[in-house]
Amino acid sequence: MTYGGELTPDAAVGSLVGAENRDGTSGVTVTDVDTDLAYVVQTSPPTAGGAVTFDYTIKGLLHGTWSTSATLRSDAINTIPIEVTKIRVR
What's the predicted TM-score (pTM) here? Predict the structure, then answer.
């Protein structure tokens, strides 16, 4: 990011310069932005952890053993996890 000139505060507009971690629980604000400096945010890779649990109901129409799959879509992760479960319809 480059600035086209000297930065001057404007309370009517408001601005905030800084960085925040992936889950929004920690952040740092740069209070005095120097236009002659370059700012780099260095992060570590995401760490494993956390869990999501949910229930769902399905209805089997044909007798036999089948597979059903559930997917999770979220902007918080860069993949779409799929959980495949075998079911038996009697």
Answer: 0.37
